[in-house]
Amino acid sequence: MTTFRNRRTSLSGRWLPVAAKLGEYRTFFGAAVRNPTAVGAATPTSEAVAATVAQVVPTTGSPVVVELGPGTGSLSGAIHNRLPPHARHIGIEIGADLVRHLQQHQPWMETLHGDAGNLRALLATLHLDKVDAVVSSIPWSLLTEETRQDVLRQVTDVLAPHGAFTALTYLPARHSEGGRHFQRQLATTFDEVITHTTWRNFPPILHYICRRPLEE
Ligand SMILES: C[S@@+](CC[C@H](N)C(=O)[O-])C[C@H]1O[C@@H](n2cnc3c(N)ncnc32)[C@H](O)[C@@H]1O
């Protein structure tokens, strides 16, 4: 027999994912209002972006994957689902509220509260000096030239020879001064830079997938 009480339970069960999504948007938007230049977006990226990003992640062995700027974790679930059981998935996030959100909702990720500019030192606290993939969605085109160069240098230092580095930017940002400079920096830092656009996001996302750091 379906009682009023049972109906209420199944209805609230159906709304749980919606409530979770709203909670995620509220946390992200709050962080964006408090620190617009660090977050660099008003909403998290779409599942279509996450599905593409996850393709660079190894599916075998015991890989180590680092996410720079996981935010509320909109890319993290797709990455996690593709990783093999003995993988490590490390998130480095600068926003304290976002770190709390990630620790609560993505407990399988090793979330560090810190700056991508301290990548090497942060990984050293986990006794790591090499990683198999770095996925980044920090607002690259808003950073200063020196900061971008410093983070890129640390990425190439920690990337294993077979590793992949992915950077996401909004498609229109490629025409900004910072965006154009970032493209040049990538071209002089990596032997291979492949681009891909995900249109199912607002605004569309430009992915840079980079391999084989060049010697300085
Ligand atoms: C555009 S949001 C992307 C969030 C999420 N990955 C997504 O795709 O929806 C940028 C994220 O990078 C974080 N961030 C910005 N600068 C950072 C830095 N230097 N170190 C670590 N995280 C940073 C922000 O707090 C924010 O969560």
C-alpha-based Rg, rounded: 18 Å
CATH class: Alpha Beta
Major beta sheet summary: 7 strands, mixed
**CATH topology (fold) name:** Rossmann fold
- Topology order in helix (H) and strand (E) letters: HHHEHEHEHEHEHEE
Shape descriptor reads: globular
Tell me what portion of residues adopts beta-strand conformation: 15-25%
Bound molecules: S-adenosylmethionine
Number of strands: 7
The CATH superfamily is known as: Vaccinia Virus protein VP39
Structural class: alpha/beta
Oligomeric category: single chain
What proportion of the residues is helical, as a percent range? 40-55%
Low-pLDDT sequence parts: 1-9
Q: Any guess at the CATH architecture?
A: 3-Layer(aba) Sandwich
Continuous helix count = 8
Protein name: Phospholipid N-methyltransferase
Keywords: Methyltransferase, Transferase
Organism: Halopolyspora algeriensis
Pfam families: Methyltransf_25
Sequence-ordered SSE layout with sheet pairings:
Blueprint: H1 4-34, H2 36-39, H3 47-53, E1 64-68, H4 76-82, E2 88-93, H5 96-105, E3 110-113, H6 119-124, E4 131-136, H7 145-158, E5 159-170, H8 177-189, E6 190-198, E7 205-213
Parallel strand pairs: 1-2, 1-4, 2-3, 4-5
Antiparallel strand pairs: 5-7, 6-7
Bound molecules: S-adenosylmethionine.
GO molecular function, one term: methyltransferase activity
InterPro entries: Methyltransf_25, SAM-dependent_MTases_sf
GO biological process, one term: methylation
Question: What does this entry look like structurally?
Answer:
It comes from Halopolyspora algeriensis. This protein is of the alpha/beta class. It has a single domain (4-213), classed as Vaccinia Virus protein VP39 (Rossmann fold). The protein has 8 helices and 7 strands. The chain has helices spanning 4-34, 36-39, 47-53, 76-82, 96-105, 119-124, 145-158, 177-189, and strands at 64-68, 88-93, 110-113, 131-136, 159-170, 190-198, 205-213. It has a 7-stranded mixed sheet, sandwiched between helices. Mean pLDDT is 92; it is low at 1-9. Bound molecules: S-adenosylmethionine. S-adenosylmethionine binds at residues 31, 38-41, 44-45, 68-71, 74-75, 92-95, 98, 115-117, 137-139.
